[in-house]
Amino acid sequence: MSSPVPGAGGAVGEDDGAGLNEPLLATGDVGFHHSGALAAVVVADAHGSGGAKEKGAAKAKDRYWEDVHQPDAVAAADLESGGWRPLLFSNKKVKAALLYPYRILILIRLVAVILFIGWRIKHNNSDVMWFWTMSVVGDVWFAVSWLLYQLPKFSPIKRTPDLAALRQHYDLPDGGSILPSIDVFVTTADPVSEPVLYTMNCVLSILAADYPVDRYTCYLTDDSGALILYDALIETGNFAALWVPFCRKHSIEPRAPESYFQREGMIYTGRSPGEFMNDYRHVQREYEELKVRLENLPSTINERSEVYNSMKAKEGVAKATWMANGTLWPGTWIEPTENHRKGHHAGIVKIVQSHPSCKPQQGFQVNNANPPLNFDCIDARLPMLVYVSREKNPCNEHNKKAGNLNAQLRISGLLSNAPFVINFDCDHYINNSQALRAAMCFMLDSREGDNTGFVQFPQRFENVDPTDRYGNHNRVFFDGAMYALNGLQGPTYLGTGCMFRRLALYGIDPARCRPEDITVDSNKFGNSTQFLNSVLAALKQERRITPPELDEPFLAEMKMVLSSSYDHGTDWGKGVGYIYNIATEDIVTGYRIHGQGWRSMYCTMEREAFRGTAPINLTERLYQIVRWSGGSMEVFFSPYNPLFSGRRLHLLQRAAYLNFTIYPVTSVFILLYAFCPVMWLIPEEILIQRPFTRYVIYLIVVIALIHTIGIFEIKWAGITWTDWWRNEQFFMIASMSAYPTAVLHMVVKPLTGKGIQFRVTSKQQAAADDDDDDKFAEMYEMRWVPMLIPPTVVLFANIMAIGVAMGKAVVYSGVWSAVQKRHAALGILFNVWIMMLLYPFGLAVIGRWSKKPGILFVLFPVAFVITGLVYIGVHAFLVNFLPFMVI
């Protein structure tokens, strides 16, 4: 663990040197000695001051927001029925002093764009008319796309959960709770592309969440059927018996151990500072041992299988993969064979941790520690933990992540049938232990709770470089566009960190427009009688208290719903569950739910709810964008086209979804403009629009208005100018690489019949051997692929264009008229603008040299000068020896 910085007034003990490697303690006392080490101590109240900085940052972000008037806490309908339901979240809107000028600027730019396009059509004078026609079409497209993006932002809303009210009304005095149950899904493709340690940390953070233990179940859905993940889950379950009580006793945040033990300068906010340091050291040591066991699992499984195979050799058994209990693993084997290889294996359900009792189980000690760890007053129960891997068969389509989630939805319906489900990608973890409660504030609220289909949280990442070179944080989207949709029908589903109402996933209409007689039949949900009964129970809001008995008939039902052919002839993947045949199953699933009339909520918390990892290598990042943008375009050409489907969709919500599905097309016209600098290499002056000066001034005005509007968005979204600028830069890079690739794929799809390939994004691995101390070494690796050719050509074309322009300015300094000089200056201004937007791509091109980002401010001018000198030299040569070829 990295050394924290001691706080003011703190000291480091000299007894064992451990003080620098341990967290800071926050107690009501000024000093505290323990175990021979003097830990740095800061003054704080009983609840800790660790969140003071976060609260201050949240307050600064809210300076442009004001509270929306709330109705009475008890709804009239509830009073008439003799019941009541509290308000569990608050709303904020942007202050009028900021919102109205923002709206006016949008209207001003709309008028300016209309005038600009009208002026261009009226003055259809160009040196290259086909290019002029394409550019006018591009300007019209830019205007439509911008309008679809901007109009839904007219009334942003921020919603904050009221956790205190939730506890007051749903937690019981005896420690129990009447909160509804939750099924938590963790999805992983395989243990190679998605490291096991990430996945297990996600599971541990879920098991330690601050939610009634007997009211949620964690499911790990392994789409590879690998024994290593099942064995890792067993090891994780064993470690959780220590980790979870430790988190509860000391109010640990975050509750993913890998992230927790790597934090620097942590502040202790628990209630047992006298025991903390001893507990901390022991748990950290146990976690390091867990990591070693997880790392050794491949060899452990291999050695175990070799022993069993040698014992079974006389019986003629093939070289199988064996579980620790001496039984054959039904999933994929180390040495693949028929029925036991990737893409062809049986379905598997293994209950790793049984369902806990309803009463707290307090009091246990860890005696192998010195001194022993005392958890006498801590609830030691763990949530139910289940391993699931669906059946795969080459004869049936697996439908990628959507198919995996639907299989999980059915299995959870049989085992626990919670009314709410939340899914996580395995590289994310719960960063705020109260996140599940926060989502429940929206689902149980008396205003729109019954009509809320899902609650989406922002995505936050912790492995991104400090400058966010490739725009991974994407704050403009997560803190801008999502707040805007929050003021309409709600944010779209973003693939992870989203809690659903099970009925919404089942394709059931919201309460306000739901018919009384809902048919639950096999044509829609499949042939499993047990599962059909679970759907009926979900409709009646019935909750399964304990899992059913796992007898032979029930096991047969579980095998049936996991079979690769269960979806055939049903509505799964269409009107039920997560949608199939679209690369971005998240957007289209959210669209289908919104189209039925459900609304969604965007939940933000002072302490980020979830955190994950992002691809910091440019190539991997662009592959991710290809899948997202290509999948979005697939939605446009599917039955879920926002123009024609979604009968209950809000008009501006429809506009937002339409923008989601067509925005990659913008890249075609951006590429067209980006190649304009090539005209500098042509001897004669070629202008795209005449009069050119007025044309450029118009462009500057409409572009400046975008950034002026952006300044207002920066203020109400609570982001920084750097966030905005990184978004602009990466959009330009993607518009020359990932987006055109997606558009090209959609063009050839009718010929190939293949959709966008589902490619699991490579997660950040350990740095290369020569960069052991640089956790961002992956960012400096340039992996060349064909889609990087266009931005490379554009980058070097602009370098050459600026250099040639400088050379021409020298050669023709006494020849050019004032108008020509002005045209040249305006043209170079456009070149420089493109270079500024492509700056992160330029850093990627120079690879490891980009560790010093300022180097481009030297390399670019040098390249300009060299190109200019070459031009001058070539021009002089031609004048003297080949005058007929003078350029």
TrEMBL record:
One of its GO terms (biological process) is cell wall organization. The keyword Iron does not apply. UDP-alpha-D-glucose binds at residues 194, 223, 400. Mn(2+) binds at residues 401, 425. GO terms for molecular function: cellulose synthase (UDP-forming) activity. Keywords: Cell wall biogenesis/degradation, Glycosyltransferase, Membrane, Transferase, Transmembrane, Transmembrane helix. Its main location: membrane. GO terms for cellular component: endomembrane system; membrane. The chain crosses the membrane at residues 97-117, 129-149, 657-683, 695-718, 730-748, 788-812, 824-849, 855-882. It is found in: Endomembrane system. Gene3D superfamilies: Spore Coat Polysaccharide Biosynthesis Protein SpsA, Chain A. InterPro entries: Cellulose_synth, Nucleotide-diphossugar_trans. PANTHER family: X-BOX TRANSCRIPTION FACTOR-RELATED. This is CSLF3-cellulose synthase-like family F.
